[in-house]
Structure formats: structure tokens, C-alpha cells
From TrEMBL:
It comes from the Bacteria. Residues 40-90 are annotated as: Disordered. Residues 48-66 have a biased composition (Low complexity). Pfam families: Actino_peptide. This is ATP-grasp-modified RiPP. Signal peptide: none annotated. InterPro entries: Actino_peptide, GRASP_targ.
Length: 90
């Protein structure tokens, strides 16, 4: 009976790096303000840092038929999306 060799990838594996315990957080909704909060495993509110604001808009563009000297030609329409993010200081 022949023995099947181990796949080549398993011969290249090494030990996992040391790990650390990550605290448990959970999202909750404040019943008074209806704002999402993050709580740690002890029920304390956790601050995740400052968050900026952003805006997004869709600008339609189109072309009309013809070159102005007469009727005809194809029409075309598309849109361009713009995105602007306010970078708040951390």
C-alpha cells in the first residue's frame, strides 16, 4: 500500500503569530435620542473617535441631437456622481 504525500501547502505553513484578546463591543440605540451608541462588555459607552460629514450628489448630463445646422443625430444621457467628505480632526 502506498502513502499519499501531504499537500505542498501544508509543508510551507508555520506557527500562528501571538494573539491578543479583543474587547467585546455591541451597538445599542439610546431610547431617548434614538442615536446609535457603542457599549463595552461592562455596559459603558465607548467613544470611537470623531466622524466627519460627507455629501453625495448625482448630476445628470445629456446631449441633444444634431449639430445646430439641422435635425438628426443621436441623443445620449448619463450622470456623474460627486462625493465630498469633510475631514474632521481626530
Amino acid at each position: 500500500m502506498t502513502q499519499t504525500p501531504a499537500p505542498w501547502g501544508t509543508r510551507r505553513m508555520g506557527s500562528y503569530a501571538a494573539t491578543t484578546t479583543v474587547p467585546q463591543y455591541r451597538p445599542v440605540i439610546d431610547p431617548d435620542t434614538q442615536i446609535a451608541l457603542i457599549e463595552d462588555e461592562h455596559g459603558r459607552t465607548v467613544e470611537l473617535g470623531s466622524h466627519g460629514t460627507s455629501t453625495s450628489g448625482l448630476t445628470p448630463t445629456s446631449t441633444t441631437p444634431g449639430d445646430g445646422s439641422g435635425p438628426g443625430g443621436a441623443t445620449d444621457a448619463d450622470s456623474t456622481e460627486s462625493y465630498d467628505q469633510d475631514r474632521s480632526s481626530g
